[in-house]
Design brief:
Zinc Finger, Delta Prime, domain 3, Helicase, Ruva Protein, domain 3, about 240 residues
Length: about 240
């Protein structure tokens, strides 16, 4: 019999990874998530086979919707191509009409809630992600990536550009459904506040590694502190 064990991302120092790599009767095979460029390439290739082009705004929206599950992404693309057969170009309206949220926007919604100061909604979504099996460490990593994306945009706002203008001009584009939340965040979070948030997230991540049994509590406490900071700054 062959037994296949699947896990989330494992660091080289992981005991489980070391076990599978060292034991001759076991084997470890890495599976890498698709990057944004990979996803766009899959979209182009799939549509081109059906003689379809895709508008830039539709590409941006579709890239946001399709996630790391390639099989699910291809299923959504098949639905989209069937919907658009007989036409030359896929539009943003087509994407909105056909494609569901394949990768799940719970993570983005949770981050938007915490970073706009809505602690209650953020905590609810945080609990949902944990219940679905998302590691708390992965949530902290996503929050750190969110801060990294906000930083250069916050500098533009600090220099005098309106938040709405900065969000609409952002590259890569910010998914249209999340743009209002990003505008609110850039109206609240200054570059200095984001630096402090980044430090707090790094400290929380380090704490989860030294106390893995408490990682959920550590991550939630960190994110709630960010929500409180955003709420106070937005008053």
């Amino acid at each position: 019999a062959v037994i296949i064990a699947e896990s989330g991302q494992l660091k080289p120092s992981s005991k489980l990874r070391k076990l599978f790599e060292k034991k001759p009767e076991l084997a470890a095979a890495p599976v890498y998530e698709d990057s944004a460029r990979d996803i766009q390439q899959i979209i182009r290739e799939t549509l081109q086979r059906e003689g379809l082009r895709i508008a830039p705004d539709a590409m941006a929206a579709l890239s946001e919707l399709l996630g790391a599950d390639r099989a699910a992404s291809r299923g959504e693309l098949e639905k989209l191509t069937l919907y658009c057969l007989g036409r030359e170009q896929v539009t943003l309206e087509d994407v909105r009409a056909v494609c569901g949220d394949v990768s799940g926007h719970a993570m983005g919604d949770m981050l938007d809630a915490f970073f706009t100061g809505d602690a209650k909604a953020g905590a609810h979504l945080f609990a949902s992600l944990l219940a679905e099996g998302t590691p708390a460490a992965a949530i902290l990593a996503a929050a750190s990536a969110h801060v990294a994306r906000l930083k250069p945009l916050a500098l533009l706002v600090a220099a005098g550009d309106p938040p709405a203008q900065v969000v609409k001009a952002a590259r890569p584009p910010i998914f249209f459904r999340r743009q209002p939340a990003w505008i609110r965040q850039l109206s609240v979070w200054t570059p200095e506040m984001l630096e402090t948030a980044d430090t707090g997230l790094l400290e929380a991540t380090a704490a989860t590694r030294s106390m893995p049994a408490l990682e959920a509590e550590i991550a939630e406490r960190c994110l709630l502190s960010l929500a409180v900071r955003a709420a106070r700054a937005g008053r």
